[in-house]
Amino acid sequence: MKISLLGSFRVFSGGTDITPGAPKLRQVLALLALNVDSSVSVDQLYSELWADRPPVSAQTTLQTYICQLRRSLGLSTGRNTGRGGPGSATDASPALLTRVGGYELRLPDRLAIDAYEFEHLARQARAQCRAGHVAAASATYRQALDRWRGSPLVDVIRGERLSAWSVRLEQQHQSVLEQRFEIELRLGHERAILDGLSAAVDAHPMHEGLAGQLMRAFQRCGRRPEALEVFRVLRDRLVTELGIEPSAALQQLHKDVLVDPGEAASVPRGGEPAAAPPARACSAPGPCLLPADTDGLVGRSAELAAVTSYLQAGGKGGDGLRIAEIHGPPGVGKTALAVRAAYRLRRHFPDGQLFLDMSEGGQGGIRFAEVLAAALESWGAPRANVRTRPADLALMFRSWTASRRVLIVADDVTVVSRLSEFLPAGTGSAVIATNRFRGRGLAAGRKVMVPRLSLEQMVELYAHAVGGRQAGDRMEAVRHLLDLCEGLPLTVRAIAGRLALRPDRSAEWLLDRLLHDRGLLLDVPAGTQSLLGTIAASHGHLSAPSRELLERLARDGRVHWQASDAVRGLKNTFAERLLEELIDAYLVEETFTAPDGPDPVAASEPVYTVPPLVRLAVERLRNDPGHGSESLIGHGSQDMNRKWLLPSA
User: Of 318, 540, 621, 631, which sits 20 to 30 A from 156 (CA to CA)?
Assistant: First the structure.
């Protein structure tokens, strides 16, 4: 049996195509093939097939899928057939085994799966390169790339795990392309690779490594104008789409091309390759596993400068691990700021940039294993030796990063001890962590608080998000509408996205809807998030007494400490401790009133305010405790799409 995961999904047995046609069967088989010779849990299969909403009949349905795969593909159950006894499989026959809590696809040779053969050949080429066998490595890299027939699983429905694996393999493909072209340039084969290298740059238009190689190839062939054009096009894209300049190395190469015709003389007139230079070790570029940068980041220049300037020094090495923690209210854009800063800092951490989703809703442990395994494989660790337990991967990760400069973005850190397990060991590495609780951060590092946007900043973000459709809106209505957003980019993007989808509706129409029911702002999604979802996540991590106090305070909205019914009956020290937790979670704001009377030395009286949108969210969560962030993604968006599309009465 042979299985193709690269390009179209295909299964062959004895040369006959036996690929399942049903979408769910293909999805199950793809996930089993991805984890060949390893058990895939039932929960992982449920998550892949139905995300967070498995049907009541999920167990029976999955068992039916397994039976259909065994029958249509001729897979044995492995029972009483192998020398290992019941439950084992023979070395010669493919089998789909039932394991405790899951299933396992067993193949006599995992290289019968083209994706594994691709990875095997890439590792072999890297080993040849490190040993100095450059010509052999070049041939092996070409063999690996011959296995690549297109993006993985293009005709398979992909859930979270298959999508993550596809992205990782695409990144590995880019890495292999870059390594192969680097060897060809060292061998003097620049004329032979020009067409392939140009096609690779077209396919990956913002890949700085490939662009630099194409510039060098053009330079050596005496085609300096084309080399300069490659740089110009790349720089325009980076500045326009990401707001960043090319790396220092690429800018230096640009200067070299401008000043000197370069290495064109090393290529004979007849176009024959020059003699191979002395062999030297090959190094793979570090993985960039960051999510896409957010378009239109507004009003964050000071905070961005604070993070990047502090961490740039860490990228030089020698000063130990540097950590920047980003705090702020729910929906204020902490993740967007962290990702933008990471892209700005890429050139200072050339060995890789990783993103860890540490939220409970993001299934942190699984994501850690996937991300760390992808990073280790990109650095050359054999897949067979990458264990799946996060604790084991963390130990390997520390060892691999000890001599590297790596940047980690740890998003939504609610339990600091979990982050401590995955910190890189290199003295030149750095971490950007976002934390929804100001008081639960790491002791070391720089703290950066992200404030709410001003009205003018919200107007700028709104104009960017809605495009030209706001031309007919009265600015007074737009400002009133944005004033309801309480300075949160999440809500501004949400309403702007809603209006951008409804060009027939005006800002006045939306303002009228919100004035009648401001709670709509909690539900309208901005991408996969809603404000209620992110507030619910903070609310769920509070202690029970703090949640109870928050509900009391939310009934009044704004209370004076001494005159508050909410804290009456509580000991002052206990109430103060609960209030500190609420303030640290940015769910309650603390201000101070001027003292009464003429005595300027008298202590100011604290006033505690629950922001209006937080009040609405707390009321919703009190009436429907299960209405949290997970349910919002699956249900809230559809319900709110229906509500928002109804015409105003």
Answer: 631
